[in-house]
Design a protein that fits this description.
Blueprint: H1 15-31, H2 33-44, E1 49-58, E2 63-72, E3 80-85, H3 92-109, H4 113-118, E4 123-127, H5 132-137, H6 186-198, E5 204-213, E6 219-222, H7 234-247, E7 254-257, H8 268-277, E8 283-292, H9 294-299, H10 316-325, H11 327-338, H12 350-362
Helix pairs in contact: 1-2, 2-3, 3-10, 7-12
Length: 366
C-alpha cells in the first residue's frame, strides 16, 4: 500500500509537527470519524489493497486527504466496479455504507477463496469520502460552498426545479453550481482523473454513488438528470434491472431515471456517462443510491431538530440496519460486473430491451 506510512507518528518527527499531527487526529476523531475508520482499515489491510491520496483539502484547522482504494486485477481489460461516498457532507450515511461494504470485503478476503478468485476477474475502486471538507464542516457543499453534484459542465434541457436543480445566485444558498469559468471543483477534478484513467476501453464498468435523500423508499437512479429522453445505452440498464429482480425478487428499491423526479444542471454522472461512453464498445452504467430518509424521520420526528437528522438515521439500531441492508446490492453489482458477458445484451437483443425500457420508464412522457 502507498501513502499509509504517514498515518502513524514517528519518533523522528519534530515536536511542533508531532503536536500538529496530534491535534489534527483529535479533530478528525471528533468531526470526521469516518476518516479515522477508513485509515484504520487501510493500515490493517493486506497487500491485496492499494491506497493512495489523490487530493488534499486544506481547511483552517486541518488538511484532509481524499483517498482512492483499489482492489483486484490490474489488467486493463477486466470490468470495473467504482464506489463513491460522501459527495454531500451532510449525507454521512453514504460514506458509512461504502465503508461498511469495504470492511466486509476486507474481512472476507482473509478466508473466502471464491472472493479471491472473483477479484482476479474484476477491478474494484473506491473513493469512500469524496468531500471530506464538507463532512468535516457538516455541510452539504464542499468548503468552497459548491454542491459537487451540480458542478459538472452540463446544462439541463428543460425547466429545472427552482434552486434544487442548481443555482448560481450565491454560494450561501444550497445547490450552488459554481461558475463555469472556474471549471469543476478540485474534488470533482480528482474523481474525473480516476474515471479517465480507469474506465475507458473496459468491456463493462458500473459505478454506485451512495447518498441519502428525501423519500419514503430507497431508490436506484440512473442518467439522465439533465433531460427526460432515454440514455443511449438504456437497454443495458434494463437488462441490469431485470437481472437484479430475478436474483433478489423481494427487494424494495425503486429503479428509475432521475429525470422522473426533477431535472438538474451540472449532474456529475450525466457528464461522466457521456464522456466514457462517447468512445469505444464497452458499456459504463453509473447508478446513484438514494436512501429514503423520510422513513427515519417518521419513526423519530425529533430528528427534524438537528440538521444531520434530515439525512441520516440517528437511532443506533436503525443505523446498523441501514449499513447492512445495502450490502447485498453492492455485492450484486460486483458479481454482475465480473460476469457481464453472461447478461449484457447482444446487439440483436438491444431493440427489444430498449422498447421495454421506454414503455416502462418513459411512456408517460409521450
Amino acid at each position: 500500500m502507498t501513502e499509509l506510512r504517514d498515518l502513524t507518528p514517528h519518533a523522528a518527527i519534530p515536536l511542533e509537527q508531532s503536536t500538529r499531527d496530534r491535534r489534527q487526529r483529535r479533530l478528525l476523531r471528533d468531526y470526521l470519524p469516518e476518516m479515522v475508520s477508513l485509515e484504520r482499515m487501510l493500515a490493517e489491510a493486506s497487500e491485496r489493497v492499494q491506497a493512495r491520496v489523490i487530493e488534499r483539502v486544506a481547511l483552517k484547522e486541518v488538511t484532509l486527504p481524499l483517498y482512492r482504494v483499489d482492489i483486484g486485477s490490474e489488467a486493463p481489460d477486466v470490468p470495473v466496479l467504482l464506489l463513491v461516498g460522501g459527495v454531500h457532507g451532510l449525507e454521512r450515511i453514504g460514506a458509512q455504507v461504502t465503508l461498511a461494504w469495504l470492511q466486509s470485503l476486507l474481512n472476507r478476503l482473509t478466508w473466502d477463496r471464491e472472493m479471491q478468485d472473483l477479484l482476479s476477474r474484476i477491478r474494484i475502486t473506491l473513493l469512500p469520502i469524496l468531500n471530506p471538507g464538507g463532512m468535516f464542516l457538516n455541510q452539504r457543499s464542499n468548503p468552497n460552498g459548491v454542491d459537487l453534484m451540480r458542478n459538472a459542465p452540463i446544462e439541463a434541457q428543460g425547466a429545472s426545479t427552482f434552486l434544487l436543480g442548481g443555482q448560481r445566485v450565491s454560494r450561501r444558498l444550497p445547490w450552488y453550481t459554481g461558475t463555469p469559468e472556474k471549471g469543476m471543483e478540485p474534488e470533482n477534478v480528482a474523481l474525473e482523473a480516476v474515471i479517465r484513467e480507469l474506465l475507458p476501453g473496459r468491456p463493462f464498468s458500473v459505478a454506485l454513488d451512495c447518498h441519502s435523500g428525501f423519500g419514503w423508499q430507497d431508490q436506484i437512479w440512473f442518467p439522465y438528470a439533465y433531460r427526460r429522453r432515454p440514455m443511449r445505452r438504456i437497454a443495458s440498464v434494463m437488462a441490469l434491472k431485470l437481472l437484479w429482480e430475478q436474483a433478489y425478487p423481494n427487494h424494495t428499491y425503486a429503479f428509475e431515471p432521475q429525470s422522473r423526479h426533477y431535472l438538474t444542471h451540472g449532474d456529475l454522472w450525466d457528464y461522466f456517462y457521456k464522456e466514457v461512453n462517447r468512445k469505444g464498445e464497452g458499456a459504463f452504467i453509473p447508478l446513484t443510491l438514494e436512501m429514503g430518509s423520510w422513513r427515519w424521520i417518521r419513526k423519530r420526528p425529533r430528528q427534524l431538530l438537528r440538521l444531520e437528522g434530515l439525512f441520516n438515521p440517528m437511532v443506533p439500531h436503525r443505523h446498523q440496519r441501514v449499513l447492512r441492508s445495502h450490502l447485498s446490492f453492492i455485492d450484486f453489482l460486483m458479481r454482475a460486473a465480473a460476469n457481464h458477458e453472461n447478461w449484457l445484451p447482444a446487439k440483436a437483443q438491444e431493440p427489444m430491451l430498449r422498447e421495454a425500457a421506454i414503455m416502462h420508464w418513459y411512456r408517460e412522457q409521450g
